[in-house]
Amino acid sequence: MIQPINKNLIIRNAAQVVRCSGRAAKCGKEMSDVNVIENANIVITNGIITYVGEKIEFPPCASPLDYKTIDATGKAVLPGFVDSHTHLVFGGYREEEFSWRMRGDSYMSIMERGGGIHSTLEATRRASFEELYTAAKSRLARMLQLGVTTVEAKSGYGMDKNTELKQLAVIQELNRTQPITVVPTFMGAHATPKEFQGREDDFIDYVTQEIMPEIKEKNLAAFCDIFCEKNVFSIEQSRKYLQKAKDLGFLLKIHADEIVQFGGAELAAEMGCTSADHLLQASDNGIRQMAENHVVATLLPCTAFSLKEHFADARKMIDSGCAVALATDLNPGSSFTSSIPLTFALACIYMKMSPEEAVNALTINGAAAIARAESIGSIDEGKRADIIILDFPSYKFLPYHIAMNIVKTVIKDGEIVINN
C-alpha cells in the first residue's frame, strides 16, 4: 500500500545526482568516485529510494498520482550529510577560554587548571533535562539547515551516573522529537572528574562497573568512546574500558592521537573500533593498521582550525588505503561550530582532499563511522531517502563557495523538512 504523498516523491531533471553508491566505507582510491549521473531522476516510495536513473520507474501497483514532484533543474542532488562526531548536548559555554587560547594558552594547560572539559562538566551537571534538551534541539535545527540528516551525539560531560544518564536520555528524546536521526554514544571516560583526581584506574572501574552496564541494560547508547591521550587516559586504561564495552555488546569509538603520538590509532585497530577520531598525531604504523583493520579515520578539521594546530594528514591516510570520514566535532570548547560548509573548505584547501573525497567523507563514510552505511549515506535503491538538493548544478560548489550554505532543500525519510 502506498503511504501518504508527503513520503512519496519524484525528484526530476537534476543536473547531477551524486550517488556516493555503496553499503560500506569507501577506502583509498575508491574515495575519488562519487558516482555522478547527469540529468537524472529519483523516485522515493514510502520514504525509501526505489529508483535512480535517467528515466522514471515506479514500483508495482504505484501510480504517478501518489507522488509529489520536485523540479531539480539546474541543481545537484546528494545524500544527506552525516556528522559522525559531535558533543552537542552540553551545559554552559567557554567563550572566556577561547580568548585565553587566542593569547597563547594551550588546550591542555587550560584543562590542567580546571578549565576545558571540567568547566563544561560542572555546567552540565547543574543543567536540567529541559535546559539541555532545548539548547541541543536548537543546535540540531541549525544543522538541519546545513543538510545534516544524521548526527552522532556523545555524552561525557557528566562522568557521574546521574548526569551521563541524563545526557543520554536527552539524546534519546532528541532522536524521537525532531527530524535528524541522532545516534547515541556513551563517553563516560572523557576526562577524570575532580572527585577521582589521582585515581584514574578507580575511575575507569567506576565507569565500567557502575555506569556502563546500566546504559546497556536501558539501551541508551550504540557506541562507547574514550579520550585516549597523554595525561588523560593511558593505552592500558583505554584498552580496559573498550574491552568491557565490547564484552557488553557496544560498538567502539576512540579519541586517538590528538595532542601527541600516543598509540591510539594502533589500539583502535587492535580493538576493532568502528572509528578512530582526531588523529592529528597518528603514526605511519597506526595509519597502516587502521587501513588493514577497516577502522574509519574520522578527521575533525574545525577542531584543528580552532586550536591553531596542524591538520590531520588526510592525504597520507587516503593514499595508505584508509577510509576517511569528516565531522564537525561540535562542542563548547575546542570546536564550537556545526559548520559543514567550513568543514568542506578546510578539508579541500588545507587537508589536500579532493571535492570528491570530501563528499564521500561526509556521506557514505560518515555513515560507516556510525555503522549505518547499509541504510543511509548514499542514493541507492533500498536505502532511506535522506537527500539534499543544492542551489547550484554541481557538488564542486560545496568547497568552492567557501564556508557558505548552499543547501536549498533537505529531505528526511522521504519528507521535505527544509525548503530554503
Kindly summarize this structure in a few lines:
By secondary structure, this protein is an alpha/beta fold.
Would you kindly provide a written description of the structure presented here, covering whatever features stand out?
The chain has 420 residues and is of the alpha/beta class. The protein has helices at residues 95-102, 107-112, 117-126, 129-145, 161-177, 200-217, 235-248, 264-271, 284-292, 301-307, 314-319, 340-349, 355-361, 364-369, 397-400, and strands spanning 9-18, 36-45, 48-53, 68-71, 76-79, 81-83, 148-154, 181-189, 223-228, 251-256, 275-278, 296-299, 324-326, 387-390, 407-412, 415-419. The chain has 15 helices and 16 strands. A hairpin with a 2-residue loop joins β15 (407-412) and β16. α4 packs across α5, α6 (200-217) runs parallel beside α7 (235-248) and α8 packs parallel to α9. The model has no long low-confidence stretch (mean pLDDT 96).
Strand content: 15-25%
**What profile does the largest beta sheet have?**
8 strands, mixed
From the helix content, strand content and strand pairing, which structural class follows? Answer: alpha/beta
Overall form: globular
Helical fraction: 25-40%
- CATH homologous superfamily (4th level) name of the largest domain: Metal-dependent hydrolases
Average pLDDT works out at: 96
How many domains in all? Answer: 2
- CATH architecture of the largest domain, please? Alpha-Beta Barrel
Question: Key features?
Answer:
420 residues, TIM Barrel, 2 domains, 8-stranded mixed sheet, 8-stranded parallel sheet, 16 strands, globular
